[in-house]
Amino acid sequence: MKSRISIAIHGGAGTLLKGEMTKEKEQAYRTVLRQALESGYEILEKKGSSLDAVEQAVVIMEDSPLFNAGKGSVFTASGKHEMDAAIMEGKNLNAGAVSLITGIKNPIVLARTVLEKSDHILLAGQGAMDFARLHGFDFKKPEYFYDEYRHEQWNKIKGTENFQLDHTSSKDDKFGTVGAVACDRNGNLAAATSTGGMTNKNWGRIGDTPIIGVGNYANNNTCAVSCTGSGEFFMKAVVAYDVSCLMEYKNLNLKEATREVIFKRLPKIKGDGGLIAVDSRGNISMPFNTEGMYRGMKTSKTETMVAIYTED
């Protein structure tokens, strides 16, 4: 029996209140989310793999300045852009991740290359950059990643020891991490996540995104998960793997497991954010404990759905 093909995406969770964003900006977000969703779904529809689908969906969001990933990445304390990404497939538990990279247009593509062309899972900093050069990646100049709003955001706190979680900034602004999860016709799962991290981050800070089992995880026996939120809290709770464990060891279904983590376990340690998840039957869950989360989903049995606010 073939599985129901399904894909879900997110563009970050946070303080997203209806009426606090211009109609033009809201429409811009919805347009890119729809493009990413439908591009990934088209791959699944043509019998492509879930790994290809999630990579493609994330690439489209990385190419948009609206999200804190790829082109829209925030500024570090030194005025640079340090990006993280991870990708994983659920059949063999193969994964690839990169952290603290600069100049790479699509970090998720480099993460996929780590998965396929190295014996490692996570590469960081200069080593990851050397690996990218070895495999023919083009490096973009800093101007490619420059965004006026991001620069203003950084200017407000640069020179201080403050840092800013992008998804908790002004309600009218751009929000964080992007990700995708998918189930293909063979029931194979995959997850991909990419981020520009925190504004004004220092000391080589790394969040949950590139850590397998924390911000990104896939296992055909349970689910595929991509997280967005306050990275340090997601690391404490090992969120993505926790969802999988609740399904494997407590026999919870996808909805029960994701809600347990987002609405009970994370709040206990004052963590905020959300996640998207899919199981091998094509079921999707997208819980979040913030006012909103840029998100979307499409399956072989449902129409394209794109939403931002809690009430959507």
From TrEMBL:
Domain of life, per lineage: Bacteria
Active site: T177 (nucleophile)
InterPro entries: Ntn_hydrolases_N, Peptidase_T2
Binding site residues for substrate: R205, I206, G207, D208, T228, G229, S230, G231
Site features described as Cleavage, chain residue numbers: G176, T177
GO process terms (BP): proteolysis
GO MF assignments: hydrolase activity, acting on carbon-nitrogen (but not peptide) bonds, in linear amides; peptidase activity
Keywords, in A-Z order: Autocatalytic cleavage, Hydrolase, Protease
Pfam families: Asparaginase_2 (PF01112)
PANTHER family: L-ASPARAGINASE, N(4)-(BETA-N-ACETYLGLUCOSAMINYL)-L-ASPARAGINASE
Protein name from the UniProt record: Isoaspartyl peptidase
Organism this protein belongs to: Christiangramia salexigens
